[in-house]
Amino acid sequence: MPRFVLAAFSFLAVVYVAAALDVASGTGSSVRAIAKSKYTTAHSLGDSYTFDARDGWQSFNASDLAYKYRRAKPNSAPPKNQGVVSKLLAAFAGLGGIGEANKAIITWYTGHDLENPSCWPNTKWKPTDKSFCCATTLVGWKNKPKCFDFVEVCNGHSKCTFCRIVDTCAGCAKASHHLDMTQAAFTQLASLDEGLLTVQMRPATQPKEWHEDLWGPEV
Predict the structure, then answer these.
(1) What is the domain count for the chain?
(2) What does 94-159 look like in DSSP terms, one character per residue?
């Protein structure tokens, strides 16, 4: 059995124990926290995984492109067991990479640039440095990810993360394939001080469990 499959079973065993403890104590908060960690912690595709264009992958360079933003210094009734575990398994079955990929570069953004995400005509919500969101080039990127799409981005096979498109990037070069990521998403792949790295990107499915603080209001 592949190592990443064994790792997945081991993780689910830990989740099951945590779920049972939650049920015994009459609370469900840590169960939701464990399920949520799927989306906030870098995941691995396994040591033997090979990136293949037929699976929607494509290589591209990523840099910090310091010209774009004024960078702030980073502050680098209880359910039965079966029901709890079923909900967790449904959450783990959510996001996944699919479809065709586009060439792109990635950067990170923070501060005032997080305000007024353009994918909503009028919203009080805005991403934070802890959200898993990104912005795309405003003009000229054909077939770019659309508002509210999810994408999977990987730095090698052991550091992958998901983010949701919530904004456009007027400062990105016209026709560039560019994703601006929130700090939490970017740091799953590399340090904020990283200058240049090779990463892979492809579209992803929608999650089955929703966390508004990570992705914004569901539509």
Answers:
(1) 1
(2) S--B-S-----EEEEE-GGGGSS-TTSSS-S----TTS-EEEEESSS-TTPPPTT-EEEEESSSS-
The whole-angstrom separation of Cα 136 and Cα 168 is 5
**What b/e sequence results for 72-94 when a residue is b if at least 16 CB atoms lie within 10 Å of its CB, and e otherwise?**
eeeeeeeeeeeebbebbeebbeb
Q: Is the pLDDT of residue 58 over 90?
A: no
Label residue 156 left, alpha or beta by phi (over 0 means left) and psi (-120 to 50 means alpha).
Answer: left
User: Above 80 in pLDDT, residue 207?
Assistant: yes
Rounded mean pLDDT, 77-88: 44
**In which domain, by residue range, is 60 found?**
45-67+96-215
